[in-house]
Amino acid sequence: MPSNKTITPLIGGNYYHIFNRGINGQPIFFQPSNYDYFLRLWKKYPGNYMQVLAFCLLPNHFHFLVKLAERIEIPDAQYNILEIVEDENRIGEIISEQLRRLFISYSQAINRQENRTGSLFNRNFKRIELT
Question: Which of 21, 66, 71, 87 could be bridged to 50 by S-S, CB 3.0 to 4.6 A?
């Protein structure tokens, strides 16, 4: 049965508690190096678009307290230009996509490492807007 819960959209300039856990409460970090790898991916994907105020990585889940950027710059190497994005909704969409890429990249690496298949995280990462 589909959930009636709506997903809180990410909006540029706002503060959020972003978190998720392993599917069925299972681990998402298996070795000490996994924590470092996750943080490197965080920096690579959404890290340029938000300020991390605090975070906690635990064996089967993570928490981040972040402030999303109010303005982002996206380089386009093909045309050697820089796109400036100031629309708060578009910024949220871009950051959501970057988080999706992070979770997919991390899941693929862990699945290879642990010789497993399938989902690593619960379907949608959770986010609570902080006011």
Answer: 66
